[in-house]
Protein 1
Amino acid sequence: MDDPTTLFHESPEDPFSVASAATAVLDHSGGIVGWSPRAEALLGHRAADVIGRPALDALVAPEDRDRVAETAAACRRTVGCFGVLPVVHRDGDRLLLGVRARRVTREGSREEWFLVGAPAREVSQWETDRSVLDGLFRRSPIGLAVHAPDLSILRVNRAITRIGGITAEQTRGRRTGDFLVEQDARTVEGRLREVLETGRPMIFTEQPCRLRSDPAYTRYVSVSAFRMEDSAGDILGVTQLVEDVTERHRARLRLALLNEAGARIGTTLDVETTARELAEVIVPELADCATVDLLEPVSRGEEPYPDGLGPVRRTAVRSVVPGAKDAVNPLGALIRFPPGTPQAECLADQAPLLVPHIRTTADFAAVAQGRAAHARNQGVHSAMMLPLAARGLVLGLVTLWRSRSPYPFEADDLTLAGEFAARAAVCIDNARRYTRQHQAALTLQCRLLPAELPDLPAAEVAHQYIPAGAAEGVGGDWFDVIPLSGARVALVVGDVLGHGIDAAATMGRLRTAVHTLAELDLDPEEVLSHLDDLVHRLAAEQEAGTSDFPLDQVTGASCLYAVYDPVSRRCSVARAGHPPPAVVTPGGQVSFPDLPAGPPLGLGGLPFEEAEFELAEGSVLALYTNGLIHTPARDVDDMLARLSEELAGPSRPLPETAKSVVEALLPAQPPDDVALLLARTRVLGDDRVATWTLPAEAAAASRARTLVGERLTEWQLDELVFTTELVVSELVTNAYRYGGGPVTLRLILGSSLICEVSDTSNTSPHLRRARTTDEGGRGLYLVAQLTERWGTRYGREGKAVWTEQRLP
């Protein structure tokens, strides 16, 4: 087979070969004693004309003889030489001839010079080709391997030997698979075979390159290849150019990993999730095991210790090494790093630490503390600790270990991990701050809601309150159960538009206003009218710029106010831009009463209407806020149908029903707050209610005392007879004296004893302290002292003064 170096010539022949070059022989004095036919063809001089003559005279022009003589003199001092000399053609033309001369010693120590010449242009190109070829195989930093058609190695350059750690002689005649691991060798030979078969070159193709002598270390090479052919087009083999791009590949991976970290770390405003995301980015790309430890207050969303010291909470663990849990403290563990340990120094100095080699028992004890033996068994040999610091605060640290990877951490690894830690620290601090503010707002919101619901004779109640997901923040949903006079109960749900502390605070103000208005025993439509005025004033305050929360403007609210009377079984409802309630009959049938919608609170000046309907004993009234039925993924009608399905059917305990409704209709983290209030109605029968109509005459008080005494005796409340007679006597007397018309007396036995005296007057009785000289004015004061509560309720046809007494 031809020498592969001939592929680098424009002509396959050496210009100095005997077959193609002009040759001549000079004696020791410079005379021509030999002349070849090729010399005659090249220069035109016949052998008979030049043999015997001095070469300078026969072949060199007079003006060039001195320079050529100097060159000849220098050549005589060596064994051989090369030069480009001017010579004269027979026709007188001047030619530049590349001449190679070598001294030959004959018998008797007679010296002669053998000259080989060719046109200088051909010689120069050939020398350039030889120089390029020599540079590729001896000095090129890019690897070069020449393969035969069967992919056996013909020749490699020095760069290949440096990559493989072998000599050129060790490669000749062998194959790539003798030096690379099987998988990588198959890749290389497959691609080279494709180049041989198709003739299409391969350009800058990256691939892994693992040597059999060190299979654990993966270097990456960029490979180009082209097919070799001779002048006849026959395939001679394939030449492969190989460049070690391991560092470039790793730099690209680091950049990609940084980009990935930016996208994966801090996707939520949750401290634990952010810590877990940091660990997942690090393992396995950078480390075999990573732990994230946050200072204990930080894990709760609070301010960290000023000095960065104190116990830490294990917040995230990630490992690809089986059994690594034995070498690290478990998730959630509270850990104290003793002074002098690398972790304590990392926290105190806010500086990363690189421990490239862990070998001795002391090294394991310092890095793994009480789990040093487990760490040694797992093969841990290198570690890094990096502080998590943001805005001048130390939040914790992240620890990285290597055990499966045989290579220790390097300075570049520490720099990359530092970028991860810096990004994660800012995200964790943001999450911590948000958690603290969110918890404060959520605490405010929960404190503004009723702590527990009262046990009332009018209804059994249960509720579910679900705060919005973390991304939305707290909202302004609320509910309430307010005892009213006459054993009645007010059921309230409302929703302040918007989120944040401002919405929660507005909700608190509205709830307080509802309680105040309920104490006045106003009709539902009147309550909503007063709330409308309040929301309108709050919105005006914010528009005037008096709010400290410009991004949380309250633009309105919705509310539903219902009053249920267990004596009449009548329910009065008014709503302001709020979904209608669901009514479940004792038989399990669900309906949504057609109630006047009413405008949302805050529009101002628009009327509200109430509707009244009767509820059978054991009916369930379901009140809820928008968040229960308004979801991006489903239609409102569909959600109402699902709500009906959950409420329908056989009677269940109310807490169980409320829980099933929430679980069926809501995602894990609803986008809005949800308040659900269920009330199962009760009825106070005739055996617990007594009503009398008394004529407006002076004897009415006496008649009232008699009736009350008899009924309390029947109810076995003899202890309350005397007190109640005094109260009834005073109220009936006032009604007869100031009201006019018939007087209605009603006793209700519920959780307390309720006494009501109604008349047709709208004049409000007032409690006052009578002077010693006054003949009257002490009646209501006496009533207030003898009862737990008292008040006045106004209706369309007069008023009712009521009292409540605790049962013995």
Note: The radius of gyration is 51 Å.
Protein 2
Amino acid sequence: MKLCVKKLLQFFAVFALLFVFNLTVFAQKLSVNDLKVEHLEDPLSIETLKPRFSWKINSTVKNTLQSSYEIRVGASKASVKSGKDLVWKANVAGDQSVLIDYAGTELQSKKRYYWQVRIKDNHGNTSAWSELRIFQTGLVDSDWTAQWITVSGKDTSKVSPLFRKEISLKKEVKSATVYVTAKGLYEAQINGKRISDSYFAPGWTSYNKHLQYQVYDVTAFLKKGSNAIGITLGDGWYKGHIGFAGQHNFYGDTRALLFQLEIEYADGSKETVQTDDQWKSSNGPILGSDIYNGETYDARFEKEGWALAGYKEDQTWTRVRTLSKGKEQLVSMSGPPVKKHEQFKTLKIIKTPKGETVVDFGQNLVGWVQLKARGAAGTKITLSHAEVLDKEGNFYTVNLRSAKQQNNYILKGAGEEVFEPHFTFQGFRYVKVEGYRGELKESDLTAIALYSDMKTTGKFTTSNPLLNQLQHNIQWGQKGNFVDVPTDCPQRDERLGWTGDAQAFAATAAYNMDVAGFFTKWLKDVKLDQLPNGSVPFVVPNVIGDGSSGAAGWADVATIIPWDMYVAYGDKRILGSQYESMVGWVKFMTSASKDNLWNTGFHFGDWLFYRPDDDGRAAVTDKYMIAQTFYAHSTQLLINAARVLGKKDDEVKYTSLLADIKAAYVKEYMTPNGRLISGTQTAYVLALQFDMLPENLRLNAAGRLVQNIRDYGNHLTTGFLGTPYLCHVLSKFGFDNVAYDLLMQETYPSWLYPVKMGATTIWERWDGIKPNGSFQTPDMNSFNHYAYGAIGDWMYKTIAGINAVADQPGYKYIVISPKPGGKITNAAAELETVYGIVKSAWTLENGLLKLDVTIPANTKAKIVLPGNTQEIGSGVYHFESKI
């Protein structure tokens, strides 16, 4: 009997172990991760009170789809974990896992919420509850009790003012949150420590319409007893030089601070510390800081310990002046902040033919240089920044125009001193060092890249090193120009949000990095700066005047980027929020047209196209002809948006308009046999990309495009508007070989010519540096100008074959359709979509195409290979096909 009991116990023990093991394996089959609210991880200031939730699914089982999800949201960790006293609880059948609308009780402003989710899949598995994540709602106007403060007198000095306040906390702090913004830029400290690793806050918006504020959890910075708050202000975009006309004080002439610290104590009581007339202000060591011209920092004027409690204020500290609230609306952050990223050590130190000391960092980047130096008090060290050296090897800054791009550091004479700027950034590869005493060592300078904190989502490599360098240059062009707004260039006296550049590159940008939040934020300003008549400015935020608006291919940013973001991220709300702007732009074009022909107004045309001058063949495309194609394109995108949003009347209305626009184009710009009045590459590319021609004439038109390319020796002649679509059109009509001939072309004009010339970013001009080493016109010759990097879109879609499908956006349905060519023997790309990572990697061996594919859970894909098309679910696959 005892033996039977013993065996029975042993059996149950083994059974229990097997049960636990199976539970572990079961749990490993399915999990949920990468939880986001409004495209952001744990956001502290979402603007909407109806946020959207997203997550990704990990599964070890092929063909996995979500069959249902369970979500719970509460005002405390305990409520969510227990499932009690929730503000929202839902158990929903379906496969939606991206941007799910909140549908619970009304959320409160400036309140933190917790949430988690679990799912079931189509195989009968249930995931564990995800880890707990947070989001915090932003403030409404009535939540602000702080007052705007500025310096005591008129804010005429270039010196960056310091603001401070000491506080005494009588109890233990449970939680503390800072809400802060500025007119200008700010850098905030508590007890001598920066409260954030972000820079250039509050960012650049159309300040006269809305101004962002930031929210920081500062619980760890405060302690019971005495504490100090210290904040420095800079001119930034608000008050500093901006644009290319030498203007400053564009938004205002007074830097100001708004700061609100809300504290909750361990006993449940609360206290608010805020800017008011009791704060003190003084000048600091930043004698001047301008985005274009650089910063001057005199360490002799440092006020040691000024941001610490117990600091003894001298007579320079005076009471601040309060300001009344302006007309601008305060809004929470919807895009990523600017942060430090890669660091570059000195590649080499050069003595130029002119005898100057120049440091080469090996990469054209945007950010600043950290300097270590020793010397006597008053020693001035100047760092000047440039992108290139001239043909003789000398430091070249003529292309900066009026921008100085120069930082000055004045030593206090206290051993090794370390300097870096605060409220400026430079675009550079080379730095000229003047005034450095002693031997300059490579370790004395470090270049630091700064750009918006966008996650890298795409990777692309091939067997061709020049193409790999091109991809590198495209990525670094994006990093350098995505500094809070999508700028044209980051170095000269411009650095503006040119709409044409942004729309041309948006699709490529969404492959390289997660730009959902970045463009969501910027598109708000596109809409706000749009004129009442629907015209869209050349630059956003608009700092060059209302008269600078309405150009074809530039103003179409109002329709192109919202649609691109919808396709890339499945964000239907961005179409809804921008729909009025899309309608406004199409209405403007209609109002400027006669008999449906838009042939009025100023247009840039195919900006910076190749201008051959040796045999009389002009690559000039009629600007009004271009305008008509973009009129059609924006109307088509408006139709698409109306369809997605269920606006059936608009869909019918604009479908009829589109037919009239295309008919007017054919009548005005095409001969009966399909020849266009401008026989350029751009003319045929735009006509074919936007379906302007009768269907029976399109293949012949594509043939004319090919012949033009062959006539130019397999060189492109396109500019900013034709280039993004050139290879796409060739592939669309079966001329992948011609597209590859263009891509692999190494002589000017081509994508690889700058690569061969040593470029590490995309150039503004096809021949920024000519074959003889001389430069193009210095007035417009940026060496970090991302527009021509739009070829990256074709490289991902055609070489690697990773394509989204508009009617199942966000890569819910994926088409993998690689098209090898150009003597490339292998290529690999991956893209982290809102559902997970998509991979496509192929090799060519003896006429056999070998393809490896990864498809994320909760999606499906179509694999298109020569003679082999099939649909698959999630998982890892291998295919082979003769080619």
Note: DSSP finds 16 helices and 44 strands in the chain.
